[in-house]
Amino acid sequence: MPRPRRKVILPDMQDKICAMLAVGGTLSMAAQFTGCHVASIRAELRYNPEFAERLKKAELRSEIGFLKSIHAAANDQQWRAAAWALERLFPDRYAKRPPRTVSLDELTELTKQITEAIVSEVPAKLYRQRLQQRIEELLNTLRASADT
């Protein structure tokens, strides 16, 4: 049975998707607005690095716009709306974390330090390599679950 053809997201639709994300929209909103599926957009991003770069810049424009609003309105009550948007659109960077919470970056750094300690203390090279490989696999699993 032949494999189904990948639907190509045409340049005009790419422009609409990027415009939607540039004002703080989500990929899901952009898909609904353009009448395509999120999976189709994600597939296009994998196959089209230029579109992926444009989309990344559009998301950054949105984030920068909210940051500018906060900066410009620091003494005004309206900055809270921009802060609210940043917390929800970019929770990894702006959402309030509960006390004693470790970020993925902090966990990655700690794991690297533990791995270095293991490498320096375990005498058998084969065991060191196996431990390093297992730790790296665990980190990759954590990263993958954080992306979903």
Question: Would you summarize the structure shown here?
Answer:
This protein has 148 residues and is an all-alpha fold. The chain has 8 helices and no strands.
Structural class based on helices, strands and sheet pairing? mainly alpha
Main beta sheet: strand number and arrangement?
Answer: none
CA-based shape: flat
Return the string of H and E elements: HHHHHHHH
Q: Over the alpha carbons, how many angstroms does the gyration radius reach?
A: 21 Å
Instruction: Name the beta content range.
Output: under 5%
Kindly state the mean pLDDT as a whole number? 83
- Classify the oligomer: single chain
Cα(first) to Cα(last) distance is 31 Å
Number of strands: 0
Flag low-confidence runs.
none
- What is the overall number of helices? 8
Helix content: over 70%
Question: Would you write up a description of this structure?
Answer:
The chain has 148 residues and is mainly α. The longest helix is centred in the middle third of the chain and has 24 residues. The two termini are 31 Å apart. The relative contact order is 0.07. The mean pLDDT is 83.
List keywords for this structure.
148 residues, flat, 0% strand, mainly alpha, 8 helices, single chain, 74% helix
Note the topology.
Elements: H1 11-22, H2 27-34, H3 38-47, H4 49-72, H5 79-89, H6 91-94, H7 104-121, H8 125-147
